[in-house]
């Protein structure tokens, strides 16, 4: 049985842990408000740009000379996966969900005879994937840290992906990230970046496809819009990842704080019972000695 000194030390240790987790929860909550605001502001712009380019893609379907960012290479042999996680842990299952989703996707593509290449963004997913798929990783990047994620981080990643496409390094590019729903829920999501994924249109049979007139010509316009769209989609997912990370960390630290409080209650109860037992034993010894005299 643990001594009173050991129990006091354990209670003090758990109390210190509770202070740390409580402070981390408050910090994550403050960061979450800013990150959630930025993610919500970027989401409508990214969705509108994706819908607009989808309509443009439908209007020019069947025409030759379309950009590779729009139509891809025309093959489906080499897949580039871009999983996005956080650089830090202590965020519950936030990073492990991305790692598991990416791993399952890699195994699925390999079972279909596809060649897979991985460009992880975030230290946690890089550390995980480098253990099992180190030969598939072509490069890695850290998720931009700080109060705000600069658009330049997404622009650099977009330029790297575009450069790999121009060199013929892959045919299909898929981004894997956690879509921020609320503080409690972040959903692992797969978004196909290249070729441009057309959203489902339930009324496609009855609706008329909009006709577009390009000024300047289609090639010049699309060559400008498609790289920008790629960067915008990547930036939006970075903001979603940042918001999801802080939400998951706030939830995890709240649970840790609650569990620490329960542990303190259990240890305090055990401490009081042990102390009472020691006092009772000492009284019995004193009474027994007095009776013997």
UniProtKB/TrEMBL annotation:
It is a peripheral membrane protein. It is found in: Cell membrane; Membrane. GO terms for molecular function: ATP binding; proton-transporting ATP synthase activity, rotational mechanism. Belongs to the ATPase gamma chain family. SUPFAM superfamilies: ATP synthase (F1-ATPase), gamma subunit. One of its GO terms (biological process) is proton motive force-driven plasma membrane ATP synthesis. This is ATP synthase gamma chain. Keywords: ATP synthesis, Cell membrane, CF(1), Hydrogen ion transport, Ion transport, Membrane, Transport. Pfam families: ATP-synt. It comes from Komagataeibacter xylinus (Gluconacetobacter xylinus). GO terms for cellular component: plasma membrane; proton-transporting ATP synthase complex. The lineage of its organism: Bacteria, Pseudomonadati, Pseudomonadota, Alphaproteobacteria, Acetobacterales. PROSITE patterns: ATPASE_GAMMA. Produces ATP from ADP in the presence of a proton gradient across the membrane. The gamma chain is believed to be important in regulating ATPase activity and the flow of protons through the CF(0) complex. F-type ATPases have 2 components, CF(1) - the catalytic core - and CF(0) - the membrane proton channel. CF(1) has five subunits: alpha(3), beta(3), gamma(1), delta(1), epsilon(1). CF(0) has three main subunits: a, b and c. CDD domains: F1-ATPase_gamma.
